């Protein structure tokens, strides 16, 4: 892929969606890794057939759809099973992302991925933008949004890269600890720079 691609990432509750929504309002195509991950396991997709072949019919409902909670329980209790699942899904996800990014018709495109570095998807992008927020804000936002206990949010945070690891790897950082208007102004400032960089 020769197009100029920005990778946008951030921990749970950091405000990634608010940021990518504003980039979209500015005319930039956003390709979402989470949506790609859902698409590749829809009925009729080769990845779903491979998952059923490996894990058995217990991971499918009566309509042949993936039972995510059942699969999640299996893979999070056994690292070898998680690796087996990733070996099935990661190539399919990457292929979907590459296809959608190549088809993007904006001056540059965005790959939004919560696990940009951990998944190796950062290899697809020219520059990375971290949406950053203090941990107490992440926990408060995510538990209010998802109706999940702060304890569960903390467990998710521990499973992801630390804030320090992300800050050390990011090319650009957008701190989201204020108002939505301030966040959107930050997006617009970065967007002007990215337009310039993508056109050279």
UniProtKB/TrEMBL annotation:
Pathway involvement of the protein, from the record: Cofactor biosynthesis; coenzyme A biosynthesis; CoA from (R)-pantothenate: step 5/5
CDD domains: DPCK (cd02022)
GO biological process: coenzyme A biosynthetic process
Enzyme type, top EC level: transferase
InterPro entries: Depp_CoAkinase, P-loop_NTPase
GO cellular component, one term: cytoplasm
Pfam families given in the database record: CoaE
Example of a GO MF term: dephospho-CoA kinase activity
NCBIfam families listed in its UniProt record: dephospho-CoA kinase
Annotated function: Catalyzes the phosphorylation of the 3'-hydroxyl group of dephosphocoenzyme A to form coenzyme A.
PANTHER family: BIFUNCTIONAL COENZYME A SYNTHASE-RELATED, DEPHOSPHO-COA KINASE-RELATED
Protein name: Dephospho-CoA kinase
Gene that encodes it: coaE
